[in-house]
Amino acid sequence: MDDRTMTIGIVIVAAGRGERAGSLEDGPKQYRRIGGRPVITHTLERFLTWSRSGPIVVVIHRDDEALFAEACGKLPGAERVITTFGGETRQRSVYEGLRALSGTDATHVMIHDAARPFVDRDVLDRVAQALDEGQEGVLPAIPVTDTLKRGGSDGLVHDTVPRAGLYAAQTPQSFHLSAIRIAHEKAAALRREDFTDDASIAEWAGLTVTLVEGSVDNIKLTVKRDIAMADEKLSQSTLPANFLPDVRTGNGYDVHQLEPGDGVTLCGVFIPHDQKLSGHSDADVALHALTDALLATCGAGDIGDHFPPSDMRWRGAPSKIFLDHAAKIVRERGGTIMNADISLIAEAPKIAPHRQKMRETLADILGISVDRCSVKATTNEKIGFIGRREGIAAIATATVVYRGETA
């Protein structure tokens, strides 16, 4: 097909809630910040600056109009963007995007996930070239390199799956606009909601889907750690040669009284014990101290300023909420969390059997690797209130790199 007769419309799917990427307090993953800007800003910019882009439809959630306007409203070319509301599933959201695009001059469509901000022009050009050559559907993909195992409900490996000819699908998945819209309409009419991507709908509808080379960088940000790694990647790649790193260290201290009970929660891990910690929340001294340490790196007060004990909302609340909040503040102010170190001071219970789980919990909450999380424990040699098993104390240190100044 002569590319002068073909107009490639874009549908960017951004209506999901992204529960796997962290707490609801953090907001949908497509609006989390990486490199100082929301994920969706990076994604939309890739298409706004690509020479072959025609009309662009972004499918958003009804609750996200203000978030989208703030994230993308000032991008050059943003006036070209059409927004429409998505449905309860990704499949329904794509269908709504296709309907909105059908009112434009687009003849073909690229359907892309908002949570893939690193798609590059080489991938877009390869997909477009395949459309130019008359392919009905085009799927960017990369060969599977890991050894694949098929397991059963018994938790055992049943066999090894040959990986020859296996590919990991990416987006943008691209089609003749009318053909993929008809396929979606047929699926909707039959109430088929079990398709995992648009290529699978196209295959089901009898369309031919051609593979083109994807990119290992074109990853989908799915969990909190993906977002943290993307932020670190962008932050490092944009540093000028004369950058002066702004490394800050914050300290935190907390202590809670022990009383008769059935266990204590430390670093987010419950440990059965003949005592419990007294406090307004779950009294996790370790996470309280680390929350203060993170807040200290950007002068954001302390845990009591953000979660006052007088507020009944926090009675019995898991302290993960507090640490999540502090980490979010750090990132919003341009910080990248590099390290978290906690020292627990207690006569009992024994911390060593739970240390690895504690480190893994910290890594999950903060979105950093386990090797950047340290948990240590010591006794008070039976001296003072800790020695008398009247309380447990925690000292925490956090290291954060903020965007520094140039020399």
TrEMBL record:
Residues 248-407 are annotated as: 2-C-methyl-D-erythritol 2,4-cyclodiphosphate synthase. The record marks 20, 29, 280, 379 as: Transition state stabilizer. Its EC number is 2.7.7.60, 4.6.1.12. Pfam families: IspD, YgbB. InterPro entries: IspD, IspD/F, IspD/TarI, ISPD_synthase_CS, MECDP_synthase, MECDP_synthase_CS, MECDP_synthase_sf, Nucleotide-diphossugar_trans. Coiled coil: none annotated. Residues 248-400 form the 2-C-methyl-D-erythritol 2,4-cyclodiphosphate synthase domain. It catalyses: 4-CDP-2-C-methyl-D-erythritol 2-phosphate = 2-C-methyl-D-erythritol 2,4-cyclic diphosphate + CMP; 2-C-methyl-D-erythritol 4-phosphate + CTP + H(+) = 4-CDP-2-C-methyl-D-erythritol + diphosphate. The keyword Kinase does not apply. Pathway: Isoprenoid biosynthesis; isopentenyl diphosphate biosynthesis via DXP pathway; isopentenyl diphosphate from 1-deoxy-D-xylulose 5-phosphate: step 4/6; Isoprenoid biosynthesis; isopentenyl diphosphate biosynthesis via DXP pathway; isopentenyl diphosphate from 1-deoxy-D-xylulose 5-phosphate: step 2/6. 4-CDP-2-C-methyl-D-erythritol 2-phosphate binds at residues 254-256, 280-281, 302-304, 378-381, 385, 388. The keyword Lyase applies. Its cofactor is a divalent metal cation. Signal peptide: none annotated. Keywords: Isoprene biosynthesis, Lyase, Metal-binding, Multifunctional enzyme, Nucleotidyltransferase, Transferase. The record marks 163, 220 as: Positions MEP for the nucleophilic attack. A divalent metal cation binds at residues 254, 256, 288. Residues 1-247 are annotated as: 2-C-methyl-D-erythritol 4-phosphate cytidylyltransferase. NCBIfam families: ispD, ispF, PRK09382.1. In the N-terminal section; belongs to the IspD/TarI cytidylyltransferase family. IspD subfamily. Belongs to the IspF family. This is Bifunctional enzyme IspD/IspF.
